[in-house]
Amino acid sequence: MTVTQSEPMTDDAVAAGLWGQDRDGAGAGRPGVRPATPNGCGTVLTHPRPTGRDRYTISEVAEHTGLSAHTLRWYERIGLMPHVDRTHTGQRRFTNRDLDWLNLVTKLRLTGMPVADMVRYAELVREGDSTFAEREHLLTAHREDVRQRIAELQSTLDVLDYKIDIYADARRASERF
Question: How far apart are CA 28 and CA 32, in angstroms?
């Protein structure tokens, strides 16, 4: 079982790319379970998954996600990418659910979530339904950090826009003479 299999159905989970099939794999048509999109978050992938496949090598996953094979192995080693299936020869075989999880991890990383928090989140997901409140708290706190950074960036963007307008006005004024 991968970590996304016991994920609760919330709007935050949908936005973060956590939705798909439920624990027994039944998925669509069941209350609280939304059908999965190609990448688990409703956006189009630049490298869509091959139709009818649910097993990928580490190099295919690296190409699909943009993560290096080294990063994928590290994620597995630190507990962020647990339970990756192996072939009889020991080669990793990632599933579509693993790709959905990596999509979430990539989004969390993009938001600046520390790896330690992502690992903690993965541990909580593996612990099951009893950790919903702690998962919610962890994501809510992180969402607040992201909102604060967005506000800071918006303020910075406003300053840049102001300065650009000053220089554009000065350039236009100098072109008139």
Answer: 9
